[in-house]
Specification:
Number of helices: 12
Helix content: 25-40%
Oligomer: single chain
Distance between the termini: 67 Å
Order of helices and strands: HHHEEHHEEEHEEHEEHHHEEHHEE
CATH architecture of the largest domain: 3-Layer(bab) Sandwich
Structural class: alpha+beta
Number of strands: 13
Radius of gyration: 21 Å
Strand order of the largest sheet: 7-6-3-4-5-11
Number of domains: 2
CATH topology of the largest domain: Hsp33 domain
CATH class of the largest domain: Alpha Beta
CATH superfamily of the largest domain: Hsp33 domain
Shape: globular
């Protein structure tokens, strides 16, 4: 795509075109550096800061450049580490799962009330599938098809998330809490997650975006740094302003390593747009599954009374394991007084 030249403020579509023209491959040229998830050498952190000393995870939503650019940034080290611990992921699976958790938090930043966003990757690689769900209160949770996946690193030493994911699709479901959820599906661009999220935003929502998500692993696969950013052009940018954004994005390197060192979303946003931004919301971020014993009791009742009676006759102590929290719930017939009302 040829680079357009403008001597006047450009329209929304023109601005998007300019941005896409200069950052091909789904507007995430810097993504492969930004989404690096550790290397074979695993050097020590320059700060020597253990994960337990890192600040709490946070999510920041801001507008910049006279509200023509949206930026969301999150520090997600603790949330990703907890999710990977619960799922029992091996290193390459941890990298993929952590990126998707961070990505879902970024996309959920503008939600309200009971709304939620769910990202699901279905691929031909050994991971098979990944799922991450986020809500406006900063809660994220998810699951992995095959957690025990660790592949040889890429030639550059990074974990080979793309090979672990394989070819397939990204499915994004936005549930507004009323009516039927809206679902969009796009082919995977690279399987590296950040690229795929940017491709979805471009193809399904017509928003040119730069997405950086990263997870750093050390030792035996411990998550020591995780987070990311989402930058979207909303329209009306001059060529030199797009140049400045592109240069700022290209200047953000070793993203996950920066989060390991304690970088916060405010610092990341400042690195991208300087002081020219207005914070709309800041919220804590955590790994939390809302599905409790009552949730699964309700799901069992949806089987119908006859089917549930039969199931309980075969398994008097009926056990259900939540795939997101790995908590196990045990039910007996006494937990279903509704069955006695027939």
């Amino acid at each position: 795509m040829a680079r357009p030249h403008h001597s006047r403020p450009v329209s929304r579509s023109e601005a998007w075109g300019a941005f896409a023209g200069r950052i091909p491959a789904c507007v995430v040229r810097p993504g492969r550096a930004l989404v690096g998830d550790g290397s074979g050498s695993r050097p020590r952190s320059p700060t020597g800061c253990p994960m337990t000393d890192l600040p709490a995870d946070t999510l920041l939503h801001a507008l910049a450049m006279d509200e023509r650019v949206r930026i969301v940034a999150c520090a997600a080290t603790h949330a990703v580490a907890e999710g990977c611990r619960i799922q029992g992921t091996h290193p390459t699976a941890s990298a993929a799962f952590g990126r998707l958790l961070a990505g879902s938090a970024l996309l959920a930043a503008t939600l309200k009330g009971r709304e939620r966003v769910t990202l699901q990757i279905r691929g031909t690689g050994p991971l098979q599938w990944l799922l991450a769900r986020s809500t406006p209160d900063g809660s994220v949770h998810g699951a992995v098809g095959q957690a025990a996946v660790h592949l040889p690193p890429r030639p550059d030493g990074k974990l080979d998330v793309g090979a672990a994911v394989g070819q397939g699709v990204l499915v994004v479901t936005r549930d507004l809490g009323i009516g039927e959820p809206w679902t969009g599906t796009v082919p995977l661009a690279t399987g590296e997650v950040g690229d795929d999220l940017a491709a979805y935003l471009l193809q399904s929502e017509q928003i040119h975006s730069a997405v950086g998500v990263g997870v750093l692993l050390r030792g035996e696969g411990e998550v020591t740094g995780a987070g990311g950013f989402l930058l979207q052009i909303l329209g009306g940018l001059e060529d030199d302003e797009v140049d400045d954004l592109e240069a700022a994005i290209a200047g953000v390197r070793e993203l996950a390593r920066a989060f390991e060192g304690g970088m916060q979303p405010r610092e990341l946003i400042h690195a991208l747009v300087g002081d020219d931004h207005r914070v709309l919301a800041e919220r804590p971020l955590r790994y939390h599954c809302p599905h409790d014993a009552e949730h699964y009791r309700g799901r069992l009742l949806l089987l119908g009374h006859a089917a549930l009676e039969e199931l309980l006759s075969e398994q008097p102590d009926l056990r259900v394991r939540c795939e997101f929290s790995q908590r196990e719930y045990c039910y007996t017939r006494a937990d279903f007084p509704e069955l006695d009302r027939d």
